[in-house]
């Protein structure tokens, strides 16, 4: 092809591209002045006009443009019908090349004449495509074959067409930046030339055939992952000639023959989808060109798909394959963190932090196929969703209308994912043409899961690094790690952290397992776990801190602090009623979970609903667990009493004084996604819920018989970043066990902050805490040795068992050697509560006993636990599924457990029993095995 022809070819391409572009731009302007009734007709005529232009150009130029037309003809799910009807003609054979040219190529490539190679050669081709045409023949040994022969000079044409296509895409990206298809065309330019070497195609065919194992379909295949397809055997190949086994089949676009043979098109497309899922996820080696011309259907039952043409075949790395699998499974689970993690592994970078929109777009990509008749609705739905997403981006980035129209939210797109996307789009288009409904999230899931089997099922037996490599701090920690290994072997643990303090020193700091079911990254000491209602213990501490600083009184009416709260008969509810779960608002906000759980993300709306709620019982009369309303009640009190946002109070009162920056949040900020653990459910434990009777201490909407549905739905809801980022002060705390344990170690000591723990590879408090508030003042750093001395001396001034406070005198009445300056420093910087009776307040004993229900399970904001001797020995709070934190102030002991495999609390119970028994600390009744109901069924930790 001379330069003159190249120039003419290029000019034709650009001329038609410009004409079509200007035609649609003109229509957009014209549409503004047309009535709604005429707009549909205008668009239809424009589609028909431009489809004819495009078809005419493709037929004239052939080459690569035929492949593009074939691709477009399969997109019945999104393209206007006018394009589909006309471009479908390209799925049939193009005008054949002269047989002399074909024979000349065969002899040159295979070294023998057609007569010498074949006993019979049919001169009329079976099909003529953009790169080659196929003839049927018979080998001298009697085997029926097909001979695929490349067109002369096609290599030059294809390479020139790729340059032209690249130029057009560059031009479109310049004119309409939001439609930048450069990543796709760049990958196509890299992969398409490989189709010109039939030796490459022959090897690809052999590889896919071996991978799919179609001749021995069941041997060694994972249950449910075997596929039932046929692939022709390769007989001989050269660069421009390929001889394959002949397989008699029906073309996919021959609907009359498919119906005549009784082919189940739904089942056929499901098997094709499964075959591609196997290639993509299991093998990492897949055919990138699944258009209708590359399939046949066997005429004999069970009418298997016959896969053809492996010229455009893509191999992806193991890491990319895992990234693609994680991206798919993240969509299945609605897991924003896993999705962003998958993007990072794949090399896909976004310019804006909008995980919700990223999930929506990805879900559109993996959406189920729809019939061709619904193409217009699908186009409109996708267009509306895109407009909605771009509006959010515009607001987030503070862009004007013009800037928004030119903004591309994708910063980098991995080339390896382009062919993958093309395959999914082609398969969806194929299903639409065949009127098959394929739910890709269901069909492909087993194959995507199989990619991660080598990592997601790696427990302690096969993974030497299952327990994070940190020093063993005590004998009890060594025994604990052995218990964790046993529980890991029994598949009771996915990821876990355990941290414990004794007498102000860390004696356990262990992390083990992985961050999520589909996230094999190891749990580290600074990983952040969702702890559900363990958050309540944090929120209660903030209320007490405001009481301690004089901004609030426990006997005060909530309506005095929060005036609007007094509506609907709530003017007599006091702060201590809220903390003791006796306000009568135990079921308030319960309908949110059925109405629309995303309302939980709206702080002001939830506070308003809380203020407008109606109590079900008289204040102080009945203790019923306020499972969701507790947080909003406390949140409203905290903000109105302090005049600050809840997160600001959290920073000032707890985060900075305890030096736990970056490891305790109520509502996570952007920037910590890589450290978030992902929730899943222990399904075996879930079955046991049916054996548990009613709990009189729980409200009607939170009884065990209703929990199965709740627990099943919670992981997907609370794995989503919009929920994780919301301020839900009863439920969505995210923390490490070492941060939660440090908090309770401080409470156990009456508010005295323990000395800093020994430095590890990831020091506590080393993360920048985001967001930072100007009102939050970080305490000055002190030398750890001085702080430890001050801590030990401060213990002598702790509250005694009767609630009285020891002063700074010794038994002889003389002052201790602690200086006045030391005392002031300790009071001011080393304790978060100044009231010597604050422990009594937590427990609801002594002077505070009149504020709680006698013998109730709750003190003022904390779950109090009975010791074996019947006395109240410890307090804390657990979360749905097992995460917990509690302390024993009599033994100056605190422990926290965070986990991501939600169960009925058996794992947590085993851990606390072991640790307490080893330290000779009474085991709280809540965690005693004597609290079993029926054989092997334990009371769930459903707080």
TrEMBL record:
Superkingdom field: Eukaryota
Domain (Beta-lactamase-related) ranges: 481-756
CDD domains named in the record: ABC1_ADCK3-like
One Pfam assignment: Beta-lactamase
GO CC terms: endoplasmic reticulum; Golgi apparatus
Domain ABC1 atypical kinase-like: 89-339
Region (Disordered): 763-782, 797-823
SUPFAM superfamilies according to UniProt: beta-lactamase/transpeptidase-like, Protein kinase-like (PK-like)
Low complexity: compositionally biased ranges: 763-774, 801-811
Compositionally biased spans, kind Basic and acidic residues: 812-823
Protein name (Swiss-Prot/TrEMBL): ABC1 family protein
Organism, scientific name: Papaver nudicaule
């Amino acid at each position: 092809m001379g330069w003159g022809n190249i120039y003419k070819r290029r000019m034709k391409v650009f001329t038609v591209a410009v004409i079509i572009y200007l035609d649609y731009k003109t229509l957009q302007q014209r549409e503004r002045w047309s009535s709604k009734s005429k707009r549909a007709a205008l668009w239809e005529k424009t589609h028909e006009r431009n489809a004819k232009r495009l078809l005419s150009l493709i037929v004239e130029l052939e080459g690569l443009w035929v492949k593009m037309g074939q691709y477009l003809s399969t997109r019945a799910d999104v393209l206007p019908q006018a394009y589909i009807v006309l471009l479908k003609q390209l799925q049939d054979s193009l005008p054949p090349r002269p047989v002399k040219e074909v024979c000349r190529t065969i002899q040159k490539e295979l070294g023998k004449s057609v007569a010498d190679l074949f006993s019979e050669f049919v001169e009329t081709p079976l099909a003529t495509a953009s790169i080659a045409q196929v003839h049927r023949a018979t080998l001298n040994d009697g085997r029926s074959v097909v001979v695929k022969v490349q067109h002369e000079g096609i290599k030059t044409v294809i390479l020139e067409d790729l340059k032209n296509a690249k130029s057009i895409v560059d031009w479109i990206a310049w004119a309409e930046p939001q439609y930048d298809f450069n990543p796709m065309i760049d990958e196509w330019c890299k992969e398409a030339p490989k189709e010109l070497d039939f030796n490459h195609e022959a090897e690809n065919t052999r590889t896919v055939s071996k991978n799919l194992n179609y001749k021995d379909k069941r041997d060694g295949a994972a249950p449910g992952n075997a596929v039932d397809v046929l692939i022709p055997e390769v007989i001989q190949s050269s660069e421009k000639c390929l001889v394959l086994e002949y397989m008699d089949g029906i073309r996919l676009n021959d609907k009359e023959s498919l119906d005549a043979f009784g082919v189940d098109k739904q089942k056929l497309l499901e098997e094709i989808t499964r075959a591609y899922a196997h290639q993509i996820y299991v093998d990492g080696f897949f055919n990138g060109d699944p258009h209708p011309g590359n399939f046949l259907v066997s005429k004999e039952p069970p009418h298997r798909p016959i896969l053809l043409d492996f010229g455009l075949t893509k191999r992806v790395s193991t890491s990319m394959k895992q990234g693609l699998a994680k991206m798919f499974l993240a969509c299945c689970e609605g897991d924003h963190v896993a999705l962003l993690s998958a993007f990072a592994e794949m090399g896909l970078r976004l310019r804006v932090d909008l995980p919700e929109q990223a999930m929506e777009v990805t879900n559109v990509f993996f959406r189920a196929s729809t019939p061709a008749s619904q193409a217009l609705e699908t186009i409109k739905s996708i267009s509306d969703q895109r407009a909605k997403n771009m509006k959010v981006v515009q607001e987030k980035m503070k862009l004007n209308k013009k800037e928004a129209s030119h903004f591309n939210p994708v910063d980098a797109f991995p080339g390896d994912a382009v062919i993958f996307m093309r395959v999914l789009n082609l398969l969806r288009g194929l299903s639409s043409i065949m009127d098959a409904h394929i739910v890709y999230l269901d069909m492909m899931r087993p194959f995507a899961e199989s990619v991660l089997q080598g990592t997601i099922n790696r427990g302690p037996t096969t993974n030497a690094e299952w327990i994070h490599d940190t020093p063993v701090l005590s004998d009890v920690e060594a025994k604990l790690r052995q218990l964790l290994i046993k529980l890991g072997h029994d598949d009771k643990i996915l990821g876990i952290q355990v941290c414990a303090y004794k007498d102000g020193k860390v004696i356990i700091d262990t992390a083990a397992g992985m961050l999520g079911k589909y996230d094999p990254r190891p749990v580290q000491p600074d990983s952040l776990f969702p702890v559900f209602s363990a958050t309540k213990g944090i929120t209660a501490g903030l209320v007490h801190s405001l009481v301690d600083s004089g901004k609030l009184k426990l006997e005060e009416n909530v309506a005095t602090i929060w005036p609007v709260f007094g509506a609907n008969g709530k003017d007599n509810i006091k702060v201590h009623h809220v903390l003791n779960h006796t306000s009568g608002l135990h079921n308030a906000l319960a309908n949110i979970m059925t109405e629309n759980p995303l309302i939980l993300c709206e702080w002001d709306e939830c506070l308003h609903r809380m203020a407008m709620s109606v109590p079900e019982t008289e204040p102080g009369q009945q203790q019923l667990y306020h499972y969701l309303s507790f947080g909003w009640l406390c949140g409203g009190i905290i903000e109105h009493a302090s005049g600050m946002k809840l997160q600001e109070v959290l920073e000032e009162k707890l985060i900075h004084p305890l030096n736990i920056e970056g490891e305790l949040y109520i509502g996570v900020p952007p920037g910590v996604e890589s450290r978030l653990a992902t929730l899943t459910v222990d399904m075996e434990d879930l079955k046991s819920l049916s054996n548990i009777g009613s709990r009189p201490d729980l409200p009607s909407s939170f009884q065990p018989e209703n929990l199965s549905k709740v627990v099943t739905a919670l992981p997907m809801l609370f794995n989503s970043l919009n929920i994780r980022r919301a301020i839900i002060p009863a439920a969505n705390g995210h923390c490490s066990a070492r941060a939660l344990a440090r908090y309770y170690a401080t409470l156990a000591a009456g508010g005295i902050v323990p000395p800093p723990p020994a430095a590890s590879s990831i020091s506590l408090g080393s993360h920048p805490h985001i967001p930072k508030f100007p009102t939050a003042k970080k305490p000055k750093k002190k030398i750890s040795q001085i702080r430890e001395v001050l801590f030990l001396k401060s213990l002598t001034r702790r509250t005694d068992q009767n609630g009285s406070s020891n002063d700074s005198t010794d038994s002889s009445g003389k002052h201790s050697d602690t200086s006045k300056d030391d005392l002031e420093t300790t009071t001011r910087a080393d304790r978060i509560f100044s009231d010597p009776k604050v422990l009594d307040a937590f427990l609801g004993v002594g002077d505070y006993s009149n504020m709680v229900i006698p013998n109730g399970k709750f003190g003022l904001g904390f779950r109090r636990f009975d010791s074996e001797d019947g006395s109240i020995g410890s307090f804390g709070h657990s979360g749905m599924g097992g995460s917990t934190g509690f302390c024993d102030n009599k033994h100056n002991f605190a422990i926290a457990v965070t986990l991501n495999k939600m169960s009925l609390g058996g794992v947590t119970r085993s851990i606390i029993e072991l640790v307490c028994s080893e330290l000779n600390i009474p085991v709280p009744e809540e965690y005693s095995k004597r609290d079993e109901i029926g054989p092997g069924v334990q009371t769930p930790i459903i707080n």
